[in-house]
Structure formats: structure tokens, C-alpha cells
Design goal:
This protein is an alpha/beta fold and 346 residues long. It folds into two domains: 1-96 and 259-346, Isopropylmalate Dehydrogenase; 110-245, Isopropylmalate Dehydrogenase (3-Layer(aba) Sandwich). The protein contains twelve helices and twelve strands. It has a ten-stranded mixed β-sheet, with helices on both faces. The protein has a two-stranded antiparallel ribbon with strand order 6-7. Strand 11 and strand 12 (262-266) form a beta hairpin. Helix 1 packs parallel to helix 12 (329-345), helix 6 (149-166) crosses helix 7 and helix 10 (283-295) packs antiparallel against helix 11 (299-315). The longest helix has 18 residues, at 149-166. It is globular, with a radius of gyration of 20 Å. The chain starts with a strand and ends with a helix. 47% of the residues are buried.
Length: 346
């Protein structure tokens, strides 16, 4: 029986990115090996239908029966009376504790600060994203930052395993233990250090989040071939900063891993101002899908898509505006698909 993938088409530029990604999946034959279920979720659906969540019932039914989720960017409205974000809801429901974002310079696209190659591992279920907020008076609101030893140990172990698998020798733990003395100083950092004891060939180094943010742009190469692990909000911000080292956030793909399920998505948002313009970079969406193919065992297809995408970016001919080209979203996707098919035929 074919493995099932739920594709959430998203909001803003999400549907056109989904179209681009599925062109690649169709071209390489992934849709013949896997069952792709296109479903709705997000603010645009919610604004039409209402309800307590951004999800229609049929999307949840499909997610529970699937082997992976492939999510396009989704808009999360900031109004306090709107539902919890799609990504956070899926991460918490399926306990996807490791949100993983590679930041690696593409061939031929070295930035002004030089080539980088690092992996960010972000705890995906807790921190301020736990969404525990309340009003104590008309003028004062409180948000609680939840940090548990269980989730900290899971994400720490994942980070060290990623370093081991890559043959890398350092894990950096991001924190603010001098201020957050209980949650970071008492739980997160000690838990990471305890886990490090099981990986004697891998060093661990602690950085305060503000210092790391400064060092990341002062001398990013010092973090090459490092795995950087931290709590939810700190890592969300740092990966956005790090994306500028390789060009922009449109090049950063990501995955969310639990023990028995995974969700793959671009690291960027829905960019609603570009909706319908067919101009946004499809790289992160396409490579998130390539990573998903690897996760589901379709390693030959995954390798072909990664290689084809790198070639298209390096050639710098059929690329979108943010890479200095004039190609549309669909044109760049079609070129990636064409090259991927050629690689599979060799």
C-alpha cells in the first residue's frame, strides 16, 4: 500500500507554491509511488467557515491516517480571538519536538559574509509557543514560557544524533540562563549537557542568545559544521537571521520530526502581498518536499530533486527575482523538474 502524504496548500502564496512543488512531484513520478492528499487549512479557510481551529474536519482525518505532512506556508492572524497556528497545532498534536532547518550556502551563491553550513534544531512544542496567556487586569497580560526536561532531552538527543550522523564535532546550546535561571539555567542547559555525556566525540558549547546573534553576523564561519540547538522562540528568530547568510528565507527548507511522524515545510511565511503574482522563490517548498521523499524512503527521487535544485540555482538562468532572475515561480519549478527527470534517467 502506498504511503500517504497530506499536502496542506496554505494561504497567501501557499497555493502557487504547492502547484510548483506538485509539478516536480508529478514529473519525477513521486505521485505514482506515494498517495498525495491535497487538503485545506489556514486563515483563508477559517475566514470563510469559522470555527475553533484553522482546520476542517476532513484535514484532521487525513492527517491522522497519513505517513507525513507536506505543508505550504500558512497565515496566522495576530488577533487574540483567532485560532492557534496550523504549524504549532500540528507540532503539538503529533509531538513533533524537533524543528530542523539546514542553513547551507548554495553553490555559486556565496554571500558577502562567506560560505556557511550549519544545522539549527529548534524545540518545537513548548516555550512561549505553548500559547499559555492570560490577562491579570485590563492593562496587564501574562505569557508563560513552558520548558520541560522531557522535551529538552528529546530535542537535545536529536541534535547530538544529527551531529553524529553528519560526522560533526560540536553542538551549541542557545540559552539565556543568566536571566531565565529556572527554565534555561535549571532545566534546558543542564539537560543538554547531561545528554552530551552519551556522545564523547562531540563537544558542547553554551552561548547566550544575544551573543550568538551578534557572532552569527560577525564571524559566521566559526559555526560551520555545528549543530545549534535551542528553545522555540530563540531558534525561530536565529534561523531567520541565519537565512540572510545564504541569500534569503526563501531558500531555507525545514522539517519537524517526532518519534512516529514528520511534517515538512518551507521556513518562510505566506507572503500574502505576493499572492497571485507567481513570483516567489519555490526553492524552500520544493526542497522540503525532497527531504520528505527521503524520509519516506524514496531516496533516489530525493537525491535527484536536491541535485537539480542546486544546479538551477548555480546556473542562475531560470531563477526568481530574489536570486537576480526574471523567472516565475512555475518556470523555476519546471526547470528543476526537468533537470531532476534527466538525473533519474542517467
Amino acid at each position: 500500500m502506498a504511503k500517504k502524504v497530506v499536502v496542506i496548500r496554505g494561504d497567501g502564496t501557499g497555493p502557487e507554491l504547492t502547484e510548483a512543488a506538485m509539478k516536480v512531484m508529478d514529473a519525477i513520478g513521486a505521485t505514482e509511488r506515494l498517495e498525495f492528499l491535497i487538503r485545506d487549512a489556514g486563515s483563508e479557510w477559517w475566514q470563510q467557515h469559522g470555527g475553533p481551529t484553522y482546520f476542517p474536519d476532513e484535514t484532521w482525518e487525513a492527517l491522522r491516517e497519513s505517513d507525513a505532512c507536506y505543508k505550504a506556508p500558512v497565515t496566522t492572524l495576530p488577533d487574540p480571538h483567532t485560532p492557534k497556528s496550523v504549524a504549532v497545532t500540528i507540532r503539538q498534536t503529533f509531538n513533533l519536538y524537533a524543528n530542523v532547518r539546514p542553513v547551507k550556502t548554495f553553490r555559486g551563491r556565496e554571500g558577502p559574509l562567506g560560505p556557511v553550513d550549519m544545522l539549527f534544531v529548534r524545540e518545537g512544542t513548548e516555550g512561549l509557543y505553548a500559547g499559555i496567556e492570560f490577562m491579570v487586569s485590563e492593562d496587564v497580560g501574562i505569557a508563560l514560557r513552558k520548558i520541560s526536561r522531557t522535551a529538552s532531552e528529546k530535542v537535545a538527543r536529536f541534535a547530538f544524533e544529527q551531529a553524529r550522523l553528519r560526522g560533526w564535532r560540536k553542538v551549541i546550546v542557545i540559552n539565556k540562563a543568566n536571566i531565565l535561571k529556572l527554565t534555561d539555567g535549571g532545566i534546558f542547559v543542564p539537560t543538554v549537557m547531561k545528554v552530551s555525556g552519551g556522545y564523547p566525540g562531540i563537544d558542547v558549547e553554551s552561548y547566550f542568545v544575544d551573543n550568538f546573534a551578534q557572532q552569527l553576523v560577525k564571524n559566521p564561519q566559526r559555526f560551520n559544521q555545528n549543530v545549534i540547538v535551542g528553545t522555540n522562540l530563540f531558534m525561530d528568530i536565529l534561523t531567520e537571521e541565519a537565512s540572510a547568510l545564504i541569500g534569503n528565507i526563501g531558500l531555507v527548507y525545514s522539517a519537524n520530526f517526532g518519534d512516529n511522524y514528520a511534517m515538512f515545510e518551507p521556513a518562510h511565511g505566506s507572503a500574502p502581498k505576493y499572492k497571485g503574482l507567481n513570483k516567489v522563490n519555490p526553492t524552500a517548498m520544493i526542497l522540503a518536499g525532497a527531504w520528505m521523499l527521503d524520509y519516506l524512503g524514496e531516496k533516489d527521487l530525493s537525491k535527484a530533486v536536491f541535485s537539480a535544485t542546486e544546479d538551477v540555482i548555480a546556473e542562475n538562468k531560470i531563477v526568481t527575482y530574489d536570486l537576480g532572475g526574471s523567472a516565475s515561480t512555475q518556470q523555476m519549478a519546471e526547470e528543476i523538474a526537468r533537470k531532476a527527470v534527466e538525473k533519474l534517467r542517467r
